[in-house]
Design brief:
Layout: H1 19-22, H2 35-38, H3 43-49, E1 56-59, H4 66-77, E2 80-85, H5 91-108, E3 112-117, H6 124-128, H7 131-136, E4 140-145, H8 149-152, H9 155-158, E5 162-165, H10 171-183, E6 195-196, H11 198-208, H12 212-226, E7 231-232, H13 234-239, H14 253-267, H15 271-283, H16 288-303, H17 309-324, H18 330-342, H19 348-362, H20 378-382, H21 422-443
Helix pairs in contact: 10-11, 10-12, 11-12, 14-15, 14-16, 15-18, 16-17, 16-18, 17-18
């Protein structure tokens, strides 16, 4: 008896199964979407039609057809299909599956497709366990992941697999899938006589956000509300209380994609895009305090002294969220986002800090010049601490000409303010001070 028995060869799944499972495509021609992989003459379809199999990673968002495509590959090529969950299985189960695959190939000459759903959840040791068997061809590994395989799949395993990128389904594709499910009397909702107007189908497709499984789940729920022979309308869909499915993983690539979109929209002074990306992160489940931290960072990195108030405002927004919580606190984050987008921009403080850090790392750690050291004891005064120090407030205009950096960094300039916002005034003051010091030195 096999650990992971093959699906029954009956023409359709049990009627009691979820609609999304019952109406899975049975042939490549039934697949909706992914034309860049499965269209006539496309690389993956052509390989399958020739009976060629190779290990691969299917990377795409939820509901884009990764599981369906893997199952169809086995059907088209006559291979044995074993579904394997990265959540429920480990190295022990991998060894058992590989043993069965070797037996199957020796006895019947039949190859085994091992489909690993959520392969990104396997740790390094578990992924390494596949390597020798993929190399020998004992198994054809098909891994499915919603995460960027460059980050989540071991490089050794990734180098032995081709990566195919599945795209989110377009709304017309999702609507076509819903229509087929409504019309299918054998596996879908056709026997129940449920109807749906175009507005309802379009609304479900928008809610699903490119996820066919989510769309079919909504359709099934609304069909139950409509009852046999009833009609699904946009109002029925709204009554089901479904929220739009937003692709997001707080530890995965989409997390970094969205924060990058927010940061760059802020940097480019686009308040509308900035507010959109910030709102999308929050509605997708991101921790609002993470968003607040990124706004505080942006205030120093990209606004800086062009508008010092930006840092105070973002810190106040963080405190406001802490005080109010959700949903009231999100408005403070929105206010800070819009302020940052419209603020004058300067990365002069960021650049200056990085240049100073580079000198700290590379230059010798020279002692502090004696004249700017404190001398709280007689011994320290005797050793020359503080000798020759000029107290600025005793000088006209509070200006003195004395060196504060170590000798190897004498006259080093880190801060170069821009001509934007308050930094334009700071730039004028700094230029005036530097000009005064140069004239003073030339005169002495």
């Amino acid at each position: 008896m096999e650990l992971f028995p093959e699906p029954a060869s009956a023409p359709s799944p049990a009627p009691a199964g979820p609609l999304a499972d019952r109406v899975r495509p049975r042939t490549l021609d039934d697949v909706v979407g992914q034309e860049h992989l499965l269209g006539p003459g496309r690389v993956l379809r052509a390989a399958l039609e020739r009976g060629e199999l190779h290990s691969m990673i299917l990377w795409g968002p939820p509901g884009s057809g990764k599981t369906t495509l893997a199952s169809l590959m086995a059907q088209v090529t006559g291979a044995r299909f074993i579904a394997f969950s990265a959540v429920l299985s480990g190295v022990k189960e991998i060894r058992q599956v590989v043993g069965e695959a070797e037996t199957e190939r020796a006895r019947r000459g039949r190859r085994t497709i091992l489909f690993v759903d959520e392969i990104h959840r396997f740790n390094r040791a578990q992924q390494d366990a596949f390597l020798p068997h993929v190399e020998k061809g004992t198994i054809v590994l098909i891994g499915a992941t919603t995460e960027n395989p460059s980050f989540e799949v071991n490089s050794a395993l990734l180098s032995r697999c081709r990566v195919y990128v599945l795209r989110p389904l377009a709304e017309p594709d999702v609507i076509e899938i819903l229509r087929r499910a409504l019309a299918d009397r054998e596996r879908g909702l056709g026997a129940a006589g449920v109807r749906a107007d175009e507005g309802a189908l379009a609304h479900i497709a928008r809610l699903a956000n490119g996820d066919a499984r989510a769309a079919l789940n909504v359709l099934e729920l609304t069909a139950q509300l409509a009852s046999a022979g009833g009609e699904i309308t946009a109002a029925t869909v709204r009554e089901a209380g479904q929220r739009r499915t937003l692709l997001y993983d707080k530890s995965g690539e989409e997390h970094y994609n969205l924060i990058s979109a927010l940061h760059k929209s802020l940097r480019d002074s686009d308040p509308d895009a900035s507010l959109y990306w910030m709102t999308r992160m929050l509605d997708s489940g991101e921790d609002p305090l993470y968003v607040a931290r990124r706004l505080v960072r942006f205030a120093s990195e990209d606004v800086g002294n062009a508008d010092p108030q930006a840092l105070a405002l973002t810190l106040a927004a963080k405190d406001a969220y802490d005080f109010l919580g959700s949903p009231e606190g999100e408005l403070a984050l929105a206010q800070a986002t819009l302020y940052l987008a419209m603020a004058p921009k300067s990365n002069a403080a960021y650049v200056a800090y990085n240049e100073a850090r580079a000198d700290v790392d590379a230059a010798p750690a020279e002692p502090v010049p004696l004249h700017i050291r404190n001398a709280p004891t007689g011994l320290m005064k005797h050793l020359g601490y503080g000798e020759g120090y000029q107290y600025a407030h005793d000088a006209p205009d509070a200006r003195v000409d004395q060196e504060h950096l170590p000798e190897s960094l004498r006259d080093r300039r880190y801060y170069r303010p821009t001509d934007r916002g308050l930094e334009a005034e700071l730039s004028r003051r700094l230029a005036d001070w530097r000009r005064w010091r140069e004239e003073r030195r030339r005169s002495t």
